[in-house]
Write a structure and sequence with these properties.
Arc Repressor Mutant, subunit A; 9 helices; Rna Polymerase Sigma Factor, Chain: A
């Protein structure tokens, strides 16, 4: 059975077809989620080519392990794929020696409160660019805490750091972002 690429094909059907190694169903799921997952990768990995490579590896893992996936309703595919992508981003960062900045550097301790209207006037691309400029360790902790909703305990376990380091990296990330927002306004 041929699937029309232009219709809003049911996710459950796509998963069933992917489990049977149906390349067309794989293509539809890829096209459905590639942009969102690339944005996710770019939140962790600033270099576009590295992010693209990590994303391809994550999609390959997704398709190779889809037989283990249990469909739980609309959105469950995206949630599972997101976990795989984040995991692959973190593996990439570990492999490339993720480092954590010292919070003793005074240039990052500008404690000026950003005015709300400044952030509201920024678009998602501008905010993403500011996040890209964070040091790798800060960016990783910031993403895990803010976007993935992990606790400092979970982040510490995931990254092999202390909870205190996680907290200080988040504080440093917020301080850097505040100062960059004020500079760009």
């Amino acid at each position: 059975m041929r699937i029309d690429l232009h219709t809003n094909t049911d996710e459950a059907l796509l998963v069933t077809r992917c489990k049977k190694k149906d390349e067309q169903a794989q293509k539809i799921l890829y096209m459905r989620y590639v942009e969102d997952m690339m944005v996710l990768c770019m939140r962790y990995i600033s270099d576009r080519e590295d992010a693209r490579e990590v994303l391809m590896d994550a999609f390959l893992k997704f398709y190779n392990s889809i037989s283990d996936f249990e469909y739980r309703g609309e959105g469950s595919v995206k949630a599972w794929l997101k976990k795989i992508v984040v995991s692959y981003c973190l593996m990439f960062l570990r492999k490339n020696r993720l480092t954590f900045e010292s919070t003793d550097d005074e240039r990052y301790h500008t404690e000026i409160a950003a005015q709300e209207h400044i952030v509201e006037e920024m678009n998602a691309k501008e905010i993403l660019l500011l996040i890209h400029g964070l040091p790798a360790g800060c960016k990783t902790v910031f993403n895990l805490y803010i976007f993935e909703g992990q606790t400092h305990k979970e982040i510490a376990q995931t990254l092999g750091i202390s909870e205190g380091t996680s907290k200080s990296q988040l504080h440093l990330a917020k301080s850097i972002l505040k100062s960059k927002i004020l500079i760009n306004s």
